[in-house]
Design the sequence.
């Protein structure tokens, strides 16, 4: 079965050789301070962030949890649908969770979100951009609108850019009330290393990092991430490869646009919806390709999401989708 349900890379960017070499050099007898400093410097440089405004934890998941715990006291809000863990972590600590419904076509009414913020005054609003599960890149003006609304109620906007590298050249709102999340789990193809990055400043940075551990990541994860970040050429090549796989995935699903609706994707997955989306999902599942459906959510009963597969599987996927399309003509 080929997994297309986790939004991860089908391959690792690090060869066995690179892994062995990096591990040989790791100083596991001591705390990971040196590798941590190296990572922050390399990551900040590559992504043009201020080195002093970034901190790491075990995946962006851990940052979501930490943000809920440190800033979420007056309630947490997000659109529905959005990354489901925002609600899971909020429920874990008994904090009130509010959601703002999307339209029937899974687009978002940002004015309605601003009204909901003014009404409920949550202390945190989470939004993934590019958005999971739809894959859509939400406009910069909307991020600014949400950031301003959250500032006005004394809260924080968290822009979760887990897929940010698939959509460069967007503008981010700035200020102490804005927190950006990034991860090495998606375009970098290193989900198993569990490296999540928070970018914030001032009071927000102080509050969310206050409960971080002194050595938040282990040396082996850092040493492997640094091996990749140190090699700019390899990294550019890898990003291009991920984007190529994404384009191939999109092209494969475009073949059946006459049967299903497809959102424009700025991520490593595609979001397919409509009356026949589940049928397509079932057909691919029967033939060895496992996408993601949302059994537990009534609003998402007619959708399926599929992540990138490698070049050896994409031709078979494309043939199957074509065959399904013809059978449905
Ligand atoms: C929008 C979004 N945020 C965060 C995460 C969690 O990523 P990490 O592996 O860094 O915990 C995911 C993973 O699917 C995601 O889609």
Sequence:
């Amino acid at each position: 079965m080929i997994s297309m349900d986790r939004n991860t890379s089908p391959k690792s960017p690090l060869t066995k050789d690179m892994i062995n070499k990096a591990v040989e050099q790791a100083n596991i007898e001591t705390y990971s301070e040196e590798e941590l400093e190296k990572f922050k410097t390399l990551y900040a440089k590559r992504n043009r962030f201020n080195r002093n405004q970034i901190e790491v934890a075990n995946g962006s998941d851990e940052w979501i949890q930490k943000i809920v715990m440190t800033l979420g006291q007056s309630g947490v809000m997000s659109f529905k649908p959005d990354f489901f863990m925002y609600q899971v972590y909020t429920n874990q600590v008994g904090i009130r969770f509010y959601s703002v419904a999307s339209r029937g076509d899974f687009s978002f009414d940002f004015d309605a979100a601003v009204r909901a913020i003014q009404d409920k005054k949550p202390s945190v609003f989470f939004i993934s951009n590019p958005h999971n599960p739809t894959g859509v890149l939400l406009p910069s003006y909307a991020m600014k609108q949400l950031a301003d609304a959250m500032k006005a109620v004394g809260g924080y906007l968290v822009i979760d850019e887990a897929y940010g590298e698939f959509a460069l050249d967007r503008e981010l709102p700035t200020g102490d009330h804005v927190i950006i999340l990034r991860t090495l789990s998606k375009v970098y193809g290193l989900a198993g290393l569990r490296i999540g990055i928070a970018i914030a400043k001032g009071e927000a940075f102080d509050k969310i990092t206050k409960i971080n551990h002194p050595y938040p990541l282990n040396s082996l994860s850092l040493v492997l991430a640094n091996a990749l970040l140190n090699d700019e050429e390899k990294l550019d090549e890898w990003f291009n490869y991920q984007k190529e796989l994404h384009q191939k995935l999109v092209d494969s699903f475009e073949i059946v646009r006459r049967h299903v609706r497809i959102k424009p994707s700025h991520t490593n997955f595609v979001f397919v919806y409509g009356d026949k989306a589940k049928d397509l999902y079932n057909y691919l599942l029967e033939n060895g390709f496992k996408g993601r459906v949302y059994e537990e959510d009534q609003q998402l009963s007619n959708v399926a999401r599929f992540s990138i597969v490698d070049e050896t599987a994409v031709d078979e996927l494309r043939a199957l989708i074509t065959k399904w399309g013809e059978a449905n003509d």
In short: The longest strand covers residues 178-183. The domain at 16-231 is CATH 3.40.640.10 (Aspartate Aminotransferase; domain 2). Residues 7, 59-61, 83, 128, 132, 160, 162, 183, 185, 191, 196 surround pyridoxal-5'-phosphate (CB under 6 Å).
